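Lab notebook, bench 4. Still working through the backlog of constructs that have no structural model yet. Next entry is a single chain of 151 residues. Request: give me the structure tokens for it.
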Amino acid sequence: MFDKALTVYMDVPLKETLDRIYERADMVRNGSLKTHCSILTLHLINNLVYSDTGDKLTRKDKRKMIHIAQKNIVENYARIYKDKKQVLTLNAEGKKRHIAKDITKSLLDYLDSKIMVEKVIDKTRIGEVIKVDKHVKTLKKAGIANVVKKK
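Model written out:
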């Protein structure tokens, strides 16, 4: 079942991700954002005192260490999803409503292409040349050679 699953990966550049995390931590610290969960950045800055070498950490050292840890987390997620076969990568830099529209459109296009591939596979068994409105490249990548665009 998981081999056929589609993963939707919301891609945000590293700098943007870290900026959002720091902005949210500042909002929690100032009291403008009420939250029941602890934020890694805020928690470590307030509670971490010494480094692994025994030196006392300054606020700047703590931020640098947290920046490296969060960067590693973001890069690892990107690497994991890059290696997967069925991943729908979406740019998540915009506003929520634009992202929601992109998700809906991309998923519908993906499902439409999958349904089209199933229909085409059935027709290729009998050797017809199939004329389609869209997804010609997708079908050709899937190994179906007798597909042409409708004119």
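Notes after review: The beta strands are 7-11, 87-91, 130-132, 147-149. The longest helix spans residues 96-124. Flag for follow-up if needed.
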